């Protein structure tokens, strides 16, 4: 299993994402990007949706990308990835592709949950092989902290202001992992930047998936969440330890928790650390905090039950194939999971 | 009224509230996001509804639905979002759904320079949606005028049951100016025409009034009718009959014809000018100073500033420019409106297009330099 030393060595030997970007102090996104890219062997092409990452890594006259990189628009990262992937199939079919390529899509929660959902759903349904990484910082940070459908209940943003009369965003967040898993793709996972080993393992499993793989990674945003830049990792860790952000995997339709805190910390501790929830600690907002508490409890218990229900599958031989994977491969290896591309390979174009 | 120092985007939001806005659906995009942010605060406090949508297509979709339900509705965006809204804009024009779409122009095409000003959406406002269609687009040139013109945009949208586009650039959006906002009197707010006939099988929602405007009731008022993007007859039902289609298109064109008369252009030192700048938005502010400076040096310069870019009133344009000998159309694009001026100019007027790209507004010196260069070449004499 690749440890942090391996990842660092790999990042040094084969730099893919370098300095020269202008993401904020304490931004979680570069941590996610580095961990993801250094966990993938071989050639990589990055497809980037509009967002902080795109804007801040490609400021004239610099680029932070040392791999082929494309940004088209906000709503279509998965559609562009579909096209690039199809092109590689054409090259492969004609014998013009010497070495396989891994396509990695980076998009924020806006580009994934909202404007990009249609393109993502289409690409997942068609079964294009790529690793789609959503760096989820729970609002539109690039345009100045507007609410997204990933913004949790009660959080204040500029378009869901919090105050004496308002509780911030009145709707709960969308569960993108369940939505993506409903497409029955081989590999879906939820991770967090604070648990880099877990994230790296998941990327490596995603790399082996025969078909689309999706990772929803909790990032952080000091200006948007209202915490010190130096606290990014610890705030995200608290989100995980409170049960707000369960680290899960859905492998070929089977759910499991990849991390269980020995004791879940009270979610209030996590809320208190962030400016976006401060209005909830005024008089009269106790009900909202109670609601947050209850919904996290409910979701967590649902997840624990799913984990228990599917535990038998993870003991099967079929599942064991995925367990052996987290060894950083040095070359292109056989892919795992349902071969959703079978039908494409047998298309009449290839005789 | 107390004096305030506010930005163009805030003036737009405040103007919308003053006009009676009750519904906003939008999607954040620089440099228009402050409009949504302001309305997220202002609308709930004014018995209105603010919804942030998942993209620009659904934003205008929700606005159309709200408008048919009876709300005064708007959205705000910038070039890329305006592009995504084009299908709905065409629909709103054909189906006669009142709405206001604010487009804060930034450098395009594509992502372009998201934080820099441009006037590159003039033709997108005119022809961005497929098919021939009538269009109304207004261009304010100051923060107080953004406030006033947002109200005017609602008035026109409601009275003529048509989408109205309010176009201004990033400089005006973020520039702060001193304003004393005067909310309009109730009587100065125009309402949409109401259905005059009783509900029943003979009811014709698309039977026009004297202003060539359909008189749809709001949804839920007891009428049964269709709203469709297909060509339709007076009953609102689809038709492919060429004559009916031609009649509908002619009516939609005809109903917006009075708009340039309602919102007249600004004429600055134009009466005796033989050297005329045509400019709108922030560019007109620069041209105005250039006119003063040229006058100081003895050149009879003037400014013609349209407040309505679409529809064009050819008679108004040729009459206003009739005295001039040289007309320079300065705009932050490749000459999108210069073509219009050239098309409708009087035969004795020479029209020169001075476009500027790159995301910087014109400077007075640039316009003066241009004037000197042209004068040296004898361009004022045909």
Per-chain topology:
The complex is a heterodimer of chains A (351) and B (382).
Chain A: H1 4-13, H2 29-37, E1 43-48, H3 52-57, E2 69-71, H4 77-93, E3 101-108, H5 109-114, H6 117-126, E4 131-136, H7 176-181, E5 187-192, H8 196-208, E6 213-218, H9 222-226, H10 232-241, E7 248-251, E8 254-257, H11 267-272, H12 286-309, H13 311-314, H14 317-323, H15 342-345
Helix pairs in contact in A: 4-6
Chain B: E1 4-7, H1 8-18, E2 23-26, H2 33-45, E3 49-52, H3 56-68, E4 73-78, H4 79-84, H5 86-95, E5 99-107, E6 113-117, H6 122-127, E7 136-138, H7 143-160, E8 163-169, H8 170-174, E9 176-179, H9 242-255, H10 259-262, E10 266-268, E11 275-278, H11 282-296, E12 301-305, E13 308-310, H12 314-320, E14 326-331, H13 338-344, E15 350-355, H14 364-376
Parallel strand pairs in B: 2-3, 2-4, 4-5, 5-8, 7-8, 11-12, 11-14, 14-15
Antiparallel strand pairs in B: 1-9, 5-6, 7-13, 10-12
Helix pairs in contact in B: 1-2, 1-7, 3-5, 11-14
Describe this structure in words.
The complex is a heterodimer of chains A (351) and B (382). Chain A is of the alpha/beta class and 351 residues long. Helices cover 39% and strands 12% of the residues of chain A. Chain A is built from 15 helices and eight strands. Chain A has helices spanning 4-13, 29-37, 52-57, 77-93, 109-114, 117-126, 176-181, 196-208, 222-226, 232-241, 267-272, 286-309, 311-314, 317-323, 342-345; strands at 43-48, 69-71, 101-108, 131-136, 187-192, 213-218, 248-251, 254-257. Chain A has an eight-stranded mixed beta sheet with strand order 2-1-3-4-6-5-7-8, sandwiched between helices. In chain A, α4 packs parallel to α6. Chain A is globular, with a radius of gyration of 20 Å. The termini of chain A are far apart. Chain B is α/β, with parallel strands linked by helices and 382 residues long. Chain B has two domains: 4-188, Rossmann fold; 265-381, Rossmann fold. In chain B, the strands form three sheets. In chain B, strands 2, 3, 4, 5, 6, 7, 8 and 13 form an eight-stranded mixed beta sheet that branches. Chain B has a five-stranded mixed beta sheet with strand order 10-12-11-14-15, sandwiched between helices. A two-stranded antiparallel sheet of chain B has the order 1-9. In chain B, α11 crosses α14 (364-376). The longest helix of chain B is centred in the middle third of the chain and has 18 residues, at 143-160. Chain B is globular, with a radius of gyration of 21 Å. The model of chain B has no long low-confidence stretch (mean pLDDT 95).
